[in-house]
């Protein structure tokens, strides 16, 4: 009797795994949205965001920029291009959605909260590892960085 119950429990467990739906991240094509439903209107550029944050610590709204990197593990963050400086880190609210690898090079609008804040060495090294940087590059990160970080509620691929 115990063997029969064990057999059925094992059969249910295996069938559950076989039929579990795998959530796929849609390819980054113009018009594709991730997270909260957003529109591209009234988005400011990354350059304008930098100017906004020079006079205040927080910006709440939409930012348009070009994606230069995305987390290689599962798309849990991306970075937006800046002129002459390191890219801006964009994370997603409550890890509620992820980005596909093919979003690199695309122009996107993100909606959320941008802040100037200090990022610890450990966080910088962790992000570098997730981006696929070499151990030598990771070891060169020895100072915290005071920079712009965005927590996005939604992302829209523009082009």
In short:
By secondary structure, the protein is α+β, with helices and mostly antiparallel strands. It has 4 helices and 7 strands. The protein has a single domain, classed as OB fold (Dihydrolipoamide Acetyltransferase, E2P) (Beta Barrel).
Protein described:
- It is a single chain.
- Residues 14-22 have low confidence and may be disordered.
- The chain is globular, with a radius of gyration of 20 Å.
- The chain has a single domain, classed as Beta Barrel (OB fold (Dihydrolipoamide Acetyltransferase, E2P)).
- The longest helix is centred in the N-terminal third of the chain and has 18 residues, at 2-19.
- Helix 2 links the parallel strand 2 and strand 3.
- The chain has helices at residues 2-19, 46-55, 121-130, 135-139; strands spanning 33-35, 44-45, 58-70, 77-80, 88-92, 107-119, 145-157.
- It is an alpha+beta fold and 159 residues long.
Structure characteristics:
159 residues, alpha+beta, OB fold (Dihydrolipoamide Acetyltransferase, E2P), 5-stranded mixed beta barrel, 27% helix
Please give the radius of gyration in angstroms: 20 Å
Structurally, how many domains make up the residues? Answer: 1
Q: How far apart lie the N and C ends?
A: 62 Å
CATH architecture: Beta Barrel
- Helical amount among residues, as a percent range? 25-40%
Order of helices and strands: HEEHEEEEHHE
Content-based structural category: alpha+beta
Main beta sheet: 5 strands, mixed, barrel
Instruction: Output the number of helix runs.
Output: 4
InterPro entries: DUF4920 (IPR032577)
Protein name: DUF4920 domain-containing protein
Keywords: Signal
Signal peptide: 1-20
